[in-house]
Amino acid sequence: MKNNGFAKIDIGKIVKAQGIKGEVKIIPITDDVSRFNELKTVFIGQEKPMNIGFLRIEKNAVIVKFKEINDRNAAESLVGQFVSVDRKDAVRLPEGRHFIVDIVGCEVICDGSSLGVVTNVLQYGAADVYVVDGGKIMFPLAEGVVESVDTGAGRIVVNPRRFREVAVK
Asked: Which residue from 60, 61, 92, 115 puts its CA 20 to 30 A from 30's CA?
């Protein structure tokens, strides 16, 4: 059984301080940016809890004022860090969807043989791309490629024919 040990899930990255009162600009890495509206507490760098004072959603970003941060210098110290939530506070995903953190570390199986372990997931507009063993193999999440995903067991089974059509070695 796979256990990636991640109790928290990244939902955004702080990219800059905003203004002089300690606000930060966060680029969301979640499919639904409105999920930020429901948050009261997040974690910076998966460890430091921060309470949200207020936020506003802009076109491609979220501007947040944390109660603990009151000036631009303090806000600048957070730049480059990821914003995460407890797994228990994560959004419920539709059937067949998985968090990237749960996909990374899964073994990819084709024709009953292991091809390696997913080490990264690259996100593109058309389809996510699974990176196996640091780039030894890469394949898009195109229709018909993945037959089954069992993140609890840490296994992804791919369709041999479709996999061979789209995989890059």
From this structure: 115
What is the pLDDT confidence band of residue 169, given thresholds at 50, 70 and 90?
confident
**Amino acid making up residue 102:** D
CA atoms within 13 A on the CB side of 62: 24
Q: Which of 77, 102, 75 is nearest to 87 (CA)?
A: 102
Q: Can you read off the two tokens belonging to residue 45? A: 């760098």
Give the pLDDT mean for 16-22: 95
The C-alpha atoms of residue 79 and residue 72 are separated, in whole angstroms, by 11
Rounded Cα–Cα distance for residues 64 and 88 (Å): 22
Q: Determine the Cα–Cα distance for residues 156 and 146; give it in Å rounded to an integer.
A: 7
Buried b vs exposed e over 62-71: b needs ≥16 C-beta within 10 Å? bbbbbeebee
Q: Are 70 and 51 in contact (CB under 8 A)?
A: no
CA atoms within 13 A on the CB side of 37: 6
Q: What is the DSSP string of 134-162?
A: GGTEEEE--TTTEEEEETTTTEEEE-HHH
Q: What is the pLDDT of residues 76-132, one digit of tens each?
A: 999 999 999 988 878 888 888 888 889 999 999 999 999 999 999 998 777 889 999
